[in-house]
Specification:
mainly alpha
């Protein structure tokens, strides 16, 4: 497989996963606003920008983190490379270049999603976009299902899965970390009903609420963090995502019969998660742990680029 093809499949998958995650946490924030009885003007929209990691870009082009500005920035802003619109366009363009590798059903699904985004692109209020965000998530899930069931599980499929899992691990970590920005300033709110509502929103932002409740009877920060970081069976936990990405990387290397730096970096990340407990994480600081995790995740991504996608790399 050519480096160009491998890169396109990897990023097609990452961009689509990114768009789905943005759609989910924007919708969850709107529900959180209602659950906590906040008036629209008091809604905390800035944390959504923080979750995306694009604070600097937003600050350059928008005066305030209002509902209108944040929704446009995260959903339809063509200048924001991480908006839903930009991610869907990038995913579609990458898919277009590898149509001979992916199935026709996958291409048709992604193309339909692209036209759905164009159809809704003039909407600016959360009340008009709730159904749109649901559709984005549904289309993304359908695309993943088509990938699973209509594409041969060879190198291309593994590059797609590896991209999706690394993107998902990053977004789960960001969603967990942004809880610090959602916390109300009064320490008396910790372990209060308001605190439980916010941690519930964190779970919903990662599609984890129902599975969490099947394991735990109450919502508290320790169990939520433990579930989203270390639960090996939940498909959006950081541990599950990293291990699944590692499995796909190993399958690719076995097929190519080569050794690359990305394998070593991925192994280090897996080892770090395996050798850490929730008590250690909370003792040293959840925010600090996630900062280190995301740094190491970026190291893995750069190693994957250097190992497979760089111009001088020659693949099978």
């Amino acid at each position: 497989m050519l480096s160009r093809v491998a890169s396109s499949i990897y990023w097609m998958s990452r961009y689509l996963e990114r768009a789905e995650n943005v759609a989910r946490f924007v919708a969850v924030n709107a529900h959180l606003m209602l659950d906590m009885g906040l008036a629209p003007g008091a809604a905390q929209w800035k944390p959504l920008v923080t979750t995306s990691g694009d604070d600097a870009d937003f600050a350059k082009r928008y005066k305030e983190a209002s509902e209108k500005n944040v929704l446009h920035f995260l959903t339809f802003d063509e200048k924001n490379p991480n908006s839903i619109f930009s991610c869907i366009c990038s995913a579609r363009e990458n898919a277009r270049t590898v149509r001979e590798v992916i199935s026709s059903e996958m291409w048709e699904q992604l193309n339909a999603l692209y036209h759905l985004v164009l159809e809704h692109s003039r909407k600016r209020r959360i009340a008009n976009l709730q159904e749109f965000y649901v559709q984005i998530r549904s289309h993304s899930h359908l695309f993943a299902g088509l990938s699973e069931n209509t594409m041969s599980h060879g190198e291309g499929w593994h590059f797609a899965r590896m991209g999706r899992m690394l993107e998902r691990a990053d977004k789960t970590a960001r969603i967990l970390d942004v809880k610090y920005f959602l916390l109300l300033p009064d320490p008396d709110y910790v372990d209060s009903p308001y605190d439980a509502i916010e941690w519930g929103a964190v779970l919903k932002s990662a599609n984890a609420f129902e599975m969490y409740r099947k394991h735990f009877h109450s919502i508290n920060y320790k169990n939520v963090a433990d579930f989203l970081i270390f639960d090996a069976d939940f498909p959006r936990s950081m541990t599950h995502c990293v291990h699944t990405a590692s499995d796909s990387l190993r399958a690719i290397l076995q097929e190519l019969k080569i050794k690359v730096q990305a394998e070593d970096e991925m192994a280090k990340l897996c080892k770090t998660l395996a050798s850490t407990s929730i008590e250690t994480v909370l003792g040293n600081g959840l925010h600090e742990f996630i900062d280190i995790f995301q740094f190491n995740l970026n190291v893995v991504d750069q190693a994957i680029y250097g190992s497979f996608f760089a111009p001088q790399t020659s693949l099978k």
